[in-house]
Specification:
Blueprint: E1 29-38, H1 42-53, E2 56-61, E3 70-77, E4 80-87, H2 93-101, E5 104-112, H3 115-124, E6 129-138, E7 141-149, E8 155-160
Parallel strand pairs: 1-4, 5-8
Antiparallel strand pairs: 1-5, 2-3, 3-4, 6-7, 7-8
């Protein structure tokens, strides 16, 4: 089969086997790091996910932690991390997103080996930047992240967590 004639390709088994040996994976993804939802009431949404689905509290950010523009609850269940974020008192990006779409997914964060390279590779192929590459460091380690627009107002953020201390 010629690689230029894609009409003859039949791959309904979804085995992960390459259809074309010369194909290279320019963006290896290790998994989903987290999914962030913008919601009208993060506290109520967190209670629902904990009660209905068995999620557990992992982290919190809000007025008590010095964050003034939003409130976020991070919930975890096995390998799944959800971030539930609602706006603070001021009108901001979160308020506008909820007014336009209602409660829903804003960020799908993908765990990659090299966040900066993932950003460069995708932008080089036509993705629109959402978040320029940045490095965040504290006493727990270093996280590198960068983001691109995907569909609608949803974005992908590439997360590199190689140097997190246990």
């Amino acid at each position: 089969m010629s690689t230029t004639d894609l009409t003859a390709v039949k791959n309904f088994e979804y085995t992960g086997t390459k259809l074309f040996e010369e194909a290279q994976d320019f963006l290896p993804i290790n998994g989903t790091d987290y999914v962030e939802l913008y919601v009208g009431n993060a506290k109520q949404a967190a209670h629902f996910y904990k009660t209905a689905f068995g999620f557990q509290d992992l982290a919190y950010a809000g007025l008590e932690t010095g964050v003034k523009d939003r409130t976020s609850y991070v919930l975890v269940q096995d390998k799944i991390r959800l971030v539930l974020t609602s706006p603070g008192a001021q009108k901001n990006e979160i308020t506008e997103h909820i007014a336009k779409h209602g409660d829903g997914v804003k960020v799908i964060a993908l765990w990659v080996d090299d966040a900066f390279d993932a950003f460069e590779q995708t932008v080089e192929r036509g993705a629109f930047p959402y978040m320029q590459p940045e490095t965040i460091e504290d006493e727990n380690g270093i996280i590198k992240r960068a983001g691109i627009h995907t569909y609608g107002d949803t974005v992908h953020v590439f997360i590199e967590r190689k140097t997190i201390k246990a």
